[in-house]
Design brief:
Number of strands: 9
Helix content: 25-40%
CATH topology: Rossmann fold
Oligomer: single chain
CATH architecture: 3-Layer(aba) Sandwich
CATH class: Alpha Beta
Distance between the termini: 45 Å
Length: 212
């Protein structure tokens, strides 16, 4: 089994950012760039200063692309893994942007409130691990992929706590597997003012936009 091309090259281009992968975080996906570009365009339309949180940050690709593409935006990065925290530092430096990095287990060390919380949590269901590609299983970090039963362990924690960390009119964008839509809807329907699921460029439901 060959090493994935992105690890061979050592980086991945992601929405005008160069994302170094030397610490072997999860390789940024095209599906992720699709919804992050939507976020970038939404923030640009508002034309005011924003404070974002990139949670489960991994390589930092989500938050760094926000900082690279939007001038009046600040971003914090929440990540639990020390290697990936170092990876975020590397990528901030490569891309010439600044952000605050917080070592945190979901919201355990977060004490700010945000206009946008952007989350790509581990969401592969444990019971579906055998369906994952062999190259992914062999080379990419399991901790960034597996999300427990139905892939919902961290998603459930995140959605139950996130509202507390949103400013008035704050929004969440979260990546997901379309098999989780019913589970997620049960959590958010009474807790948040509005929500909508969206498809990615491949026609699969891939992310949700939630308003406080």
């Amino acid at each position: 089994m060959d090493l994935p091309e992105e690890y061979k090259k050592g980086y991945k281009d992601f929405l005008n950012a160069k994302i170094d992968l030397s610490k072997r975080p999860l390789i940024p996906r095209d599906e992720t760039s699709y919804w992050v570009e939507i976020v970038i365009n939404e923030i640009k339309k508002e034309n005011k200063e924003f404070h974002c949180l990139d949670l489960f940050s991994g390589s930092g690709c989500v938050g760094i692309s926000i900082l690279k593409n939007i001038n009046n935006c600040f971003c914090d990065f929440g990540e639990i893994n020390d290697d990936f925290i170092e990876q975020i530092k590397i990528n901030l430096g490569i891309n010439g942007v600044n952000g605050k990095i917080i070592k945190t287990d979901v919201f355990s060390n977060i004490d700010s409130s945000y206009d946008y919380i952007l989350a790509n949590p581990p969401y592969v269901a444990d019971e579906r691990w055998e369906e994952v590609g062999e190259d992914v299983k062999m080379f990419e970090p399991k901790l960034a992929l597996l999300g427990g039963t139905r892939g919902m362990n961290l998603i459930r924690r995140f959605l139950k706590e996130a509202k507390t960390f949103l400013k008035d009119n704050g929004k969440i964008f979260m990546e997901l597997d379309e098999d989780q839509m019913n589970d997620i809807e049960e959590i958010v329907k009474d807790k948040y003012s509005s929500y909508q699921f969206f498809k990615d460029q491949f026609g699969k439901y891939r992310f949700i936009r939630i308003e406080k």
